[in-house]
Amino acid sequence: MRVLGVDPGLTRCGVGVVDGGPGGRCKLVHVEVVRTPPDADIGARLLALDLAFTAAIAQYRPDVVAVERVFSQHNVRTVMGTAQAGAVALTAAARAGVRVALHTPSEVKAAVTGNGRADKAQVTTMVTRLLKLTERPKPADAADALALAICHCWRTPMQTKMQEQIALAQRAQGVKR
Amino acid sequence: MRVLGVDPGLTRCGVGVVDGGPGGRCKLVHVEVVRTPPDADIGARLLALDLAFTAAIAQYRPDVVAVERVFSQHNVRTVMGTAQAGAVALTAAARAGVRVALHTPSEVKAAVTGNGRADKAQVTTMVTRLLKLTERPKPADAADALALAICHCWRTPMQTKMQEQIALAQRAQGVKR
């Protein structure tokens, strides 16, 4: 499974592509950080992101685009930018006929470090190790996008397995939902 | 000036087109409410909005697309949907080469009712009166989209005038910004 992870942001937006192989091995395919100038028109900034996502999806043909699920308990301005950039990524994926998935920051941290409250440095360290990279991906947005993609590769088989187990148990008990 | 106003929302999104004439007269060109099913995939919902905005922009060829500026002090879930739908509208406008503008809900209410804290019924009443409509636009999202477009028609000449006055005053004083 190939996953394109997006750490959404207006000023810096991380885009990371990872191949999830058998046995949980993940492999780096591509990573980039798309930037838009803070003083540019909001329409132009979102369009620049749209073009970058569309180009990356066309080039790397992911099976899934995984985007960070945004919560609004943080700084108002940042959250709006994150929600806007994320929406553009989701729309670009749907336009290309690619499935989308959302993961919360704590799900991503838990998936790659085992701790849902891990800090940025720890996430970067684990992404570097898991993908066997020779250098730490920089800036943090690049590492976060890769962490999102890894998280998706790992969570999905688990979720599918759990759903299968639940379905089996329900069938055994004659329970209908 | 022709303005396409967008009251952004995932479940119901108001789209209203208004022509602003000389002397502040505004004329209704088009109004619709785009709906997407709450149980559909988020990518599919945003793509449906993107297609609707793109079609409306192509058909009515506005000079400006005016979108509600979102604040996050309200309900988290609603705000996220509003930010996402708004981002898709801004991107669709930029892609079509149309200028974008943002107005806050209180700017819109103040523009059409004279009161920044007016309720929805009052906004609908004034939109109906200002556009000389025979029926009240329904649902409220339709009226809000038209109010946004009217607000833009009225605020822009005022802002331009103010900026001209400021520029003149600065030139007179030899002030350079």
TrEMBL record, chains A, B:
It comes from the Bacteria. PANTHER family: CROSSOVER JUNCTION ENDODEOXYRIBONUCLEASE RUVC. The RuvA-RuvB-RuvC complex processes Holliday junction (HJ) DNA during genetic recombination and DNA repair. Endonuclease that resolves HJ intermediates. Cleaves cruciform DNA by making single-stranded nicks across the HJ at symmetrical positions within the homologous arms, yielding a 5'-phosphate and a 3'-hydroxyl group; requires a central core of homology in the junction. The consensus cleavage sequence is 5'-(A/T)TT(C/G)-3'. Cleavage occurs on the 3'-side of the TT dinucleotide at the point of strand exchange. Mg(2+) 2 binds at E68. Belongs to the RuvC family. Keywords: Cytoplasm, DNA damage, DNA recombination, DNA repair, DNA-binding, Endonuclease, Hydrolase, Magnesium, Metal-binding, Nuclease. The lineage of its organism: Bacteria, Bacillati, Actinomycetota, Actinomycetes, Mycobacteriales. It is found in: Cytoplasm. It is an enzyme of class 3 (hydrolase). Mg(2+) 1 binds at D7, D141. PROSITE patterns: RUVC. HAMAP family: RuvC (MF_00034). It comes from Fodinicola feengrottensis. InterPro entries: RNaseH-like_sf (IPR012337), RNaseH_sf (IPR036397), X-over_junc_endoDNase_Mg_BS (IPR020563), X-over_junc_endoDNase_RuvC (IPR002176). This is Crossover junction endodeoxyribonuclease RuvC. Its EC number is 3.1.21.10. Its main location: cytoplasm. Binds 2 Mg(2+) ion per subunit. The active site is at D7, E68, D141.
